[in-house]
Write a structure and sequence with these properties.
Length: 153
């Protein structure tokens, strides 16, 4: 299985917007912030603005060159050597190890950029993400409805 990440582009934004408009299982997991009425252009504009506001880099996750999701290295603070990692993939690709591979790639990218601490907030019911973070040596801190996952290199 060939999994890769590449910087978010307009053609990929169109595909990702379609996924967010049509994948009801993914929409349910991501929560009510998804309108289901996103265009590729609005998706790209929103993510470009988010990247500026949060000092973030966003990447498309591809499987065999097909766009299947999104992953980001966000809230980057080089002084603290700290960044956050977030991701999602279309539900038809769940439980295939794709996010785990993309996570490894974004973690390596973050290390190359000089980051030593990686964090995320993970809902307690998101067992797949919890497993990815634990596999990569994360400490999980219980915070009522979610875990704060933290990897220190």
């Amino acid at each position: 299985m060939n999994i890769s990440i590449e910087e978010l582009s307009k053609p990929n934004a169109n595909i990702l917007a379609t996924v967010l408009n049509t994948d009801s299982k993914l929409i349910e997991k991501l929560g009510s912030s998804i309108s289901g009425n996103e265009s590729g252009e609005s998706f790209l504009t929103r993510y470009n603005e988010w990247q500026k506001n949060t000092n973030s880099s966003t990447f498309t996750i591809k499987k065999e060159n097909e766009v299947v999701g999104l992953i980001s290295l966000s809230h980057k603070n080089i002084n603290l050597k700290k960044a956050r990692i977030g991701y999602w993939i279309c539900s038809k690709e769940w439980k295939k190890g794709i996010c785990s591979i993309a996570f490894d790639e974004i973690l390596e990218l973050g290390k190359k950029e000089g980051y030593k601490i990686f964090e995320a907030n993970i809902p307690k019911g998101n067992i797949a993400s919890i497993k990815i973070w634990i596999k990569n040596g994360a400490e999980l801190i219980d915070n009522d409805t979610h875990f704060i996952a933290k990897i220190t290199i």
